[in-house]
Amino acid sequence: MAVRGRLSTWERIHKYDPRAVTTCVFCNSHLESHAHLFLECLFSRAIWTQLLNYYGSPWNGLCWNDFIAWASAYWRGNTHIIVAKKLCLGATVYHIWKEHNCRIFKGIQRTSSLVACSIIDTIRCRLSSINLKDHPLIALNWNVNAN
Fold first, then answer.
1. Residue 144: left (phi > 0), alpha (psi -120 to 50), or beta?
2. A Pfam family matched by this chain, by name (predicted)?
């Protein structure tokens, strides 16, 4: 739903309720759109930077729509490397949206570092169920047993 722009961000809610607050729950200074929430916000950017540093991949500097188009074009198939990249994207979007909702509905706030650690744990858990014996670099990058 995030990739298709269907999540109920403040930008989308504002179309139906002009009285709705439209600022990002993380930075309180920009319009909360899918692009801002998942990639452009300093909070989200800090998460992506930590994940990409952990994964050993440089930041590509793309905007959200370009990033999704690029990932859709190049992350095809089910090779172990592609699965790890898709897991990273899916887990990151899920945890950012979860943090977004916790801040709105529960008043609970975590730092970007804690959210990134949750994402890493989620990815490790999923990768630990995959046989990575022939892919030691993935196992090494994510600190997962290859067997």
1. beta
2. zf-RVT
In a domain, 84, yes or no: yes
Q: Is residue 33 part of a domain?
A: no
What is the reported pTM?
0.83
- Torsion angle of alpha carbons 17, 106, 97, 2, nearest 10°? -30
* Within a domain: 11: no
Q: Residues 63-101, buried b or exposed e (16+ Cβ, 10 A)?
A: ebeebbeebeeeeeeeebeebbbebbbbbbbebbbebbe
pLDDT of residue 42: 93
Distance CA 51, CA 60 (A): 13
Boundaries of domain holding 133: 41-141
* pLDDT (tens digit per residue) in 44-60: 999 998 888 776 666 66
Half-sphere exposure of 100 (CA within 13 A, CB side): 23
Is residue 102 domain-resident? Answer: yes
